[in-house]
Write a structure and sequence with these properties.
membrane, single chain, two-stranded antiparallel ribbon, two-stranded antiparallel sheet, 20 helices
């Protein structure tokens, strides 16, 4: 397939497409009238999704039917659900029923975004432009954003810019004003999700041809400045996977893996999540000391103890789409944990959240769609097979299902490009 540089001026969409992706990737916390900017932009394509429902890829239709069933089942479950609404800053859109509708609209935005990726890549591929070239446009745009982030972080670190007045860098030790610790978060709520997103971008560089070291270096720097444990694990897991793919046929490989690589990976992995391991192992003693620490009684660590109780009580259909924060203060779920005063999210990743909110039903059907999609496309397209694997990897590491960037990989997979990944 030929690469045509002169088509940049002729095909204006090749300039608009990266801008569209930038908005959908980054602006997760910028809102207008309570609606996130990235989701608002993506929702503008919903009429395109609905009008072409008969001609769009069948797997997107399967996802749409599944998400509709989530909403319908949740409405039925809510009739017999006790909600705990004494939460600070509880907006109307987060009330029972409305939060489920909001979550469904967010998922609809994700499908619309995946459709746009799928259609755009197909359109330009059919006109002689390599997938690698289109992806590089997206990555280059993110490179410029990362350069701005790194510059702001550096100026903040050097006290040239104020840490307190910064919107994309924040202090992780605000309780100790004499020892500020800047952490990059971009337009995400905190550094963890930003770092995981840049880990996904780093992995995406393996899908393009040509020079890519500058892209990878900038994305890794952002990842380090964000202090994202999930992002670091994602990069390590990806390189371990690549090493496995390259040498799995060698007879000596299994012995190297068992004697060296697996222990090294396990050691690095446990070092990265050491704080979580310590908190879980000493949970009972820490609860009494940190009852007012929102970082402990909310989020991922608390969810490790709350979600099993939810699943045991609601195994088939879960607690309902978007209902986690509204029911997590149920004493039967909390155990020894104090109730949360604010809006909480489990932070355990897509599959765990699906199990909690949509039960075995939701998790099983979601995995089956991914499985049949992988079986359909991986046979004829290396890019499609790898894109689905990246989607699963990121989903395992704490991202939420309504984050648009993970659906970029679904759109890429459905386009089934024939370009081989550059080794």
């Amino acid at each position: 397939m030929k690469r045509i540089e002169s088509l940049d001026t002729k095909h204006f969409g090749l300039w608009l497409f990266p801008i569209y992706c930038i908005i959908c990737f980054h602006f997760t916390e910028v809102k207008f009238a309570g609606v996130k900017l990235n989701e608002l932009v993506s929702l503008l394509t919903v009429p395109f999704l609905i009008s072409g429902i008969k001609s769009i890829n069948k797997y997107l239709v399967y996802f749409l039917i599944l998400f509709l069933s989530f909403l319908f089942i949740t409405i039925c479950l809510n009739l017999n659900t006790t909600f705990y609404l004494n939460l600070e800053g509880l907006s109307p859109l987060k009330l029972p029923y409305l939060i489920s509708v909001s979550r469904f609209i967010e998922l609809l935005a994700c499908l619309s975004f995946a459709l746009m990726i799928y259609k755009t890549i197909n359109y330009y591929s059919n006109r002689g432009i390599e997938v690698s070239y289109t992806l590089r446009k997206v990555l280059n745009a993110n490179f410029y954003i990362s350069a701005i982030f790194l510059l702001v972080f550096l100026l903040t670190y050097l006290n040239i810019l104020s840490l307190q007045n910064s919107s994309i860098v924040y202090d992780t030790t605000s309780y100790d004003p004499n020892n500020p610790t800047p952490r990059l978060r971009g337009f995400y709520v905190e550094g963890g999700p930003l770092g995981l997103f840049y880990a996904a971008l780093y992995i995406l560089t393996f899908f393009i041809k040509g020079r890519k070291w500058l892209l990878r270096a900038s994305f890794l720097l952002v990842l380090l400045c964000s202090q994202s444990k999930a992002g670091i694990v994602a990069v390590l897991a990806w390189h371990f996977y690549l090493f496995y793919q390259n040498f799995k046929s060698a007879k000596w490989f299994r012995y190297v893996v068992l004697t060296a690589l697996l222990p090294i990976f396990y050691l690095v992995f446990t070092m990265v999540i050491a704080n979580y391991i310590h908190a879980v192992q000493n949970f009972s003693g820490i609860v009494a000391e940190r009852q007012n620490d929102t970082n402990f009684v909310m989020g991922r660590i608390a969810a490790v103890f709350i979600t099993p109780n939810m699943v045991m009580e609601n195994p088939i259909f879960g607690v309902g789409l978007g209902n986690y924060a509204l029911v997590r203060n149920n004493p039967d779920y909390l155990g020894i944990l104090p109730p949360s005063k604010g809006w909480d999210a489990p932070g355990l990743g897509v599959f765990a959240t699906l199990l909690v909110e949509n039960g075995i039903y939701g998790l099983t059907l979601f995995i089956l769609i991914l499985y049949f999609m992988y079986r359909r496309y991986s046979r004829t397209s290396v890019v499609s097979g790898e894109a689905i694997k990246v989607f699963v990897l990121i989903c395992l590491l704490g991202v939420q299902l309504h984050f648009l960037y993970i659906w970029f990989f679904i759109g890429l997979a459905l386009a089934a490009p024939n370009d081989e990944i550059d080794s």
